[in-house]
Specification:
The complex is a heterodimer.
Chain A (H helix, E strand, L loop, with lengths): L4 H8 L2 H19 L5 H12 L4 H18 L1 H7 L11 H9 L3 H34 L4 H18 L4 H16 L1 E2 L6 E2 L13 H17 L21 H7 L1 H16 L5 H15 L11 H17 L1 H7 L5 H12 L7 H5 L1 H32 L4 H20 L3 H18 L5 H23 L11 H29 L3
Chain B lengths: L1 E2 L1 H20 L13 H25 L5 E2 L2 H4 L1 H24 L1 H15 L4 H22 L10 H5 L2
Antiparallel strand pairs in B: 1-2
The chains are: A mainly alpha, B mainly alpha.
């Protein structure tokens, strides 16, 4: 890894990469700070563009965009009480109440610095953990991969959203979408309804653009004419006072970082869930839990330290096993596959300079976040007044061009529209989208490992647990499903109690 | 549009039946006990289980719930037309972009939608003129992705 460092630097410092990186950072800041536009949507919009860039440039763009977008989500949260991305929702009341108390600088300063610290912590874990895990993963066969994917998909059901039953529905929808097209073992066309365009499966980029961007446009339509009111006050020195707050809560920072990274690594859950959990844990252990939700600096530190840490954590399983840790890395895996890079333990041996460049991009993104963020906070009042009546149609046009451009296939627009409506319907019904994305991305692999193991074992299910690592992974998967079932039964009982 | 637990269960059960029924027609790989229909069959079974879970939930707590709650996008006439226009824009792009070219098609869509969403004429026209040019520059010139030129073909390459 170390010997690839000079090459990694050279890759990262190409003029095109630097320019795209800066552009992506600004794009991330913009999308993140626009209420209603999430970091995942930013990446989905970025994918059609990055498809035409070389892999390192494309990955740098994704890293820059997500890191900036998750921080920028805090800005409208603090100034308007509208979280810019779902990852800022957990502590929006605290940030906004601090602003009302005349301390917007403190709120945003805490968010900015904890974001950068969290991002660096997650990156450190990524750099140290991923190559070690890859060495272990090199010994895995199809059977272990089957269980690994099964475990990943099961975790996604467990952690995505409050209702695991609907999480399971989402996962099955995703797996079904992945079966459309030629079957992985025999090549027989399945569920194509006679469309030749579906033979190679549901095209990935139009599907992602549809599920994240089109669905979000539809969801925001009923409120599109409501102009958001920005509480623009004069913003003073942002970092003054931040240092002393952070020094007061070192334990919270480390705990938030750790929780965030761990949740990020867990498949299916990303920055938003990391922030909620870290905030809840922080409240439970706080000496002053009553202030949480009313402008607690401590709560801001807890959650702010977690969400950016989750972003880097999510890349650990994505790179090592090809199992995405969150929706963003699910899109990244699709992107890598299209670029001819197979995520998995081999990637560390075959493409060390590209992985090195990715790690460096993470470090740089979190370092430049502070100066760029300081400027962004000052510009935010302008950004937030970009009218949504203009922005929404522009995003729509961009989605169409992007989906269409990949294969120059008009059918891509059909896929984009159908998937957009599907994702909108799912969210309306409380069915989380993240497990479906994981199902779409991992479905082919899951079925392939399942079928090859079935064939090797001659249809015997006992063969699936005939190697020790596979048996352990199977046991963990079983525990996850038991937890889900127990939770469902308990939830059912609670509903029975009247009132 | 929000379905009640029971209604969602019915939809999922229907989907499971459709998947299982279609998968029954898939060929068997010679010499194997299972083929392309196995995995879809597992998915269908999973969906059916989820449907049963939803029915149980309905039996416990869902009585009296409305089957379908249409929600603002379908009930509010203004939002409904907005949604139709957004989806209509995609269909329109599909239908005419190749012949008319990207820039005129996108300009027309932007003008209609920005006005519809309440932007002033000045803002709408500025968006319709500058937006397509910027996107065209980005994709066609910088990323070298061909966008349909349509009626502007002659303008660029002569008659």
């Amino acid at each position: 890894m170390i010997e690839a460092l000079p090459q990694a630097f050279a890759l990262l410092l190409q003029p095109q990469t630097v320019l795209v990186g800066i552009g992506a950072a600004l794009f991330g800041l913009f999308v993140g700070s626009m209420p209603g536009l999430s970091a995942t949507m930013a990446v989905a919009l970025l994918v059609p563009v990055s498809f035409f860039l070389d892999p390192v440039t494309a990955l740098t763009a994704v890293v820059m965009t997500t890191a900036m977008a998750i921080f920028a989500g805090d800005i409208p949260g603090a100034l308007m009480r509208i979280p810019g991305t779902p990852a800022s929702a957990a502590y929006v009341d605290d940030a906004y109440n601090l602003t009302k108390q005349g301390k917007p600088e403190l709120a945003l300063g805490i968010c900015l610095v904890t974001s950068a610290i969290g991002g660096l912590f997650g990156t450190a874990v990524l750099i140290l953990l991923a190559p070690r895990l890859a060495e272990v993963a090199l010994r895995f066969s199809g059977m272990e991969y089957f269980w690994l994917v099964a475990l990943g998909l099961s975790c996604a059901v467990m952690v995505a959203g409050r209702d695991p039953l609907k999480g399971a529905v989402s996962l099955l929808i995703g797996l079904f979408i992945a079966t459309i097209g030629q079957d992985v073992t025999s090549g027989y066309p399945r569920f194509t309804m006679g469309f030749g365009n579906l033979l190679s499966g549901v095209a990935f980029i139009p599907a992602m653009v549809g599920m994240f961007a089109i669905a979000e446009i539809l969801r925001n339509l009923p409120t599109i004419r409501n102009a958001a009111e920005v509480q623009v006050r004069r913003i003073g020195s942002i970092l003054r006072g931040t240092g002393s707050v952070l020094r007061r809560y070192p334990v919270n920072i480390v705990r938030g970082n750790t929780i965030g990274t761990a949740i990020g690594i867990l498949p299916g859950a990303g920055a938003d869930i990391a922030a909620w959990i870290s905030y809840a844990v922080g409240k439970r252990f706080s000496k002053d839990p009553d202030r949480f939700g009313k402008g607690s600096e401590e709560g801001l530190v807890d959650a702010g330290a977690a969400n950016n840490a989750a972003i880097a954590g999510a890349w650990v399983p994505a790179l090592v096993f090809g199992i995405p840790g969150d929706s963003v890395t699910a899109i990244v895996i699709g992107l890598l596959l299209m670029k001819g890079l197979q995520p998995g333990p081999d990637i560390f041996l075959m493409n060390p300079e590209q992985i090195g460049a990715l790690f460096l991009a993470f470090i740089i993104a979190n370092l430049i976040m502070i100066p760029i963020g300081l400027v962004a906070i000052r510009l935010c009042a302008k950004v937030l007044t970009v009218p949504r009546p203009v922005l929404t149609p522009l995003i729509l046009i961009f989605c169409m061009v992007g989906s269409f451009a990949i294969d120059n296939d008009p059918f891509a627009l059909v896929i984009m529209m159908v998937m957009g409506i599907l994702a909108w319907l799912m969210e309306e019904n409380g069915i989380p989208v993240a497990p479906a994305i994981l199902g779409i991305v991992l479905g082919d692999q899951f079925e392939k490992h399942f079928m090859t193991t079935m064939m090797k074992g001659d249809g015997s299910l006992a063969y699936f647990v005939s190697r020790p690592i596979a048996a352990v992974l199977a046991a963990i998967t079983a525990v996850v499903w038991l937890t889900i079932l127990v939770g469902l039964v308990r939830r059912g009982r609670q509903q029975e109690v009247p009132g | 549009m929000k379905l009640s637990d029971a209604a969602l269960g019915v939809v999922l059960l229907g989907a499971a039946a459709a998947i299982a029924w279609t998968a029954r027609g898939f060929p068997v790989v010679p010499g194997q006990a299972f083929g392309p229909s196995l995995f879809p069959g597992v998915i269908a079974a999973g969906l059916a289980l989820c449907a049963i879970g939803l029915f149980l939930r309905h039996a416990r707590a869902g009585r009296g719930a409305r089957w379908i709650e249409p929600g603002p996008l379908l009930t509010d006439p203004r939002a409904r037309l907005d949604a139709l226009l957004v989806l209509g824009a995609i269909v329109a792009y599909l239908a005419v972009a190749e012949r008319l070219g990207f820039i005129p098609t996108a300009a027309a869509i932007l003008l209609v939608l920005t006005r519809r969403f309440g932007a002033s004429w000045r803002l709408a026209i500025a968006t319709a003129v500058l937006g397509p040019l910027a996107i065209h520059l980005m994709f066609a010139e910088w990323l070298r992705v061909p966008l349909p030129l349509g009626v502007l073909l002659h303008l660029r390459y002569g008659a």
